[in-house]
Amino acid sequence: MRIIIYTGKGGVGKTSMAVATACKIAKDGKRVLVMSTDQAHSLKDSFDVKIGREPTRVAERLDAMEIDTVYESEKCWGNLQDYLKQLLTLKGGSGIEVEELLVFPGLEELFSMFRILDMYESGEYDTLVVDCAPTGETLALLKYPERLSGLIRRVLPIEKAGVKTVGVLLENLMKLPMPKDAVFDDIEYLMDKMLRLQKLLLNQNVVSLRVVTTPEKIVISEAKRNFTCLYLYHYNVDVVIVNHIYPQEAMEGYFNKWKRLQEEGLREIRESFSEVPRIYVELLPKELRTLNVLEEVGDLMFSECNPNDVLFQKEIYQVDGEAGSLKIYLPFAEKEELGLEKDGNELVVGVKNESRRFPVPVGFVGREIIGAKWEEGYLKIMFA
Fold first, then answer.
1. Residue 201 in contact with residue 142, Cβ under 8 Å?
2. CATH number at residue 334
């Protein structure tokens, strides 16, 4: 099964590109589900049909769904949520205040990502196309499994057996209700599912991310930052889709000044993403909605390649045991924005306001960092 995730700045046409891709793959004979994790869903607008929180048939071999994050949240951690609510109401808190405290940023979106795992493990489809929220929310979503699983391990390292043994005593001493088995079941369920989700998302033979941009300076800059952060988290971007290109015949009169700006933008995209395949989509004289139009766009986008293939793969880590160095691919990062420190057997690499922990390669465990330098898009770290 293939999973193709579309991301990019708000307003660049992610949904249209994702849906057109899904239409093309289904037309070529695959069973496809196109799923929206963006809370501002617009799949129903693209297909011009009603779409719910469960897969809805929109064409032959093509289903669509818009994830209901509240519904997914209740399914995933109802018992744990009830226990936390108990703790928060002990001192007199109640009602809406408690409900608001239990809405952790990004958690509902994480549960929407669990549906990706569910669909993958069900084997019901050949391809899953995911229309994600705008760039910042997508990045937060993709790093959530790693960060939350670490937090849960640190904050709730309690075992069921231990609570059963001393639970009554602690309950009497601390005047706090002890968690029941169902609460631990929720924690174990969350941990297990996050680990499986993280493993799946990092499988570059299954999961590809596709960045959608337009030939405008501001959008291109965000696409570059997005690209760097995705590689920082070991995700594979296999194509850059350049949308909203004005055809030459439209560049007369009022739009004449845009001609030079568009040419500059397209040149920057060619130079910046020279290694990665690029797909250019011209602005059509009609809205990208309804099945016929979306199938037409899908045919135009992928006239020279198969959208279901992994179109590009980059080796992100390079370990050189003899030279005692590790290289991490971080395209578009600026030298002055990079940070590096060692924390036990982990490397903490920072790019501007993003940071990621990497396990130190086995051959370098116990060795100190003696230097680092920026080298042709790679951060090269040298060990003693």
1. yes
2. 2.60.40.790
